[in-house]
């Protein structure tokens, strides 16, 4: 099973240049995931690549920040704003990234494509 994640373009760039090694989420997948597709949200609005998830850590946002802030690719303010009023969060290790040479426009490839707010499962 694959998952399509919406990620803001400034964080996609940090994944590409290797400064963001963990993707943080407030909720996690219920099914086993082999590969994560990266949808760079507005204004890019393209599928830009994939990554293989490594270890996934579930803990309090405070602990996640303590352990992973150096590889987070986000500021402390951005991190804690994202996790506001959440007791539990998830850090997904970005184990292996494969960026597409030419980003894919999902609106042309799949008529009716709707970008996920967080993530959506994909069969392929």
Structural account:
The protein has 124 residues and is α+β, with helices and mostly antiparallel strands. It has a domain at 2-56 and 92-122. The chain is 22% helix and 40% strand. The protein has four helices and six strands. It has helices spanning 9-16, 61-68, 76-82, 106-109; strands at 2-7, 22-25, 35-40, 46-59, 89-104, 119-122. A six-stranded mixed beta sheet has the order 2-5-4-3-1-6. It is globular and about 40 Å long. The termini are close together. The mean pLDDT is 95.
This entry's quaternary arrangement is single chain
Fraction of residues in β-strands: 35-45%
* Rg from alpha-carbon coordinates: 14 Å
Structural class estimated from helices and strands: alpha+beta
Distance N to C terminus: 7 Å
Biggest sheet, in brief? 6 strands, mixed
The largest sheet has its strands arranged as: 2-5-4-3-1-6
What is the string of helix and strand elements?
EHEEEHHEHE
Helix content: 10-25%
Based on CA inertia axes, which overall geometry fits? globular
Count of alpha/pi helices? 4
Mean pLDDT: 95
Keyphrases for this structure?
124 residues, alpha+beta, six-stranded mixed β-sheet, 4 helices, 6 strands, 22% helix, 40% strand, PUA-like_sf, ASCH_domain, ASCH domain-containing protein
């Amino acid at each position: 099973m694959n998952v399509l994640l919406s990620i803001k373009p400034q964080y996609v760039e940090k994944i590409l240049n290797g400064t963001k090694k963990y993707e943080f989420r407030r909720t996690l997948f219920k099914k086993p995931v082999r590969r994560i597709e990266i949808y760079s949200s507005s204004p890019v609005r393209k599928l830009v690549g994939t990554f293989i998830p490594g270890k996934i850590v579930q803990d309090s946002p405070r602990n996640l920040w303590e352990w992973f802030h150096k590889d987070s690719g986000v500021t402390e303010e951005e991190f804690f704003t994202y996790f506001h009023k959440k007791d539990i969060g998830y850090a997904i290790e970005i184990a292996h990234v494969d960026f597409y040479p030419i980003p894919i426009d999902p609106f042309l490839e799949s008529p009716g494509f709707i970008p996920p707010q967080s993530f959506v499962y994909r069969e392929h």
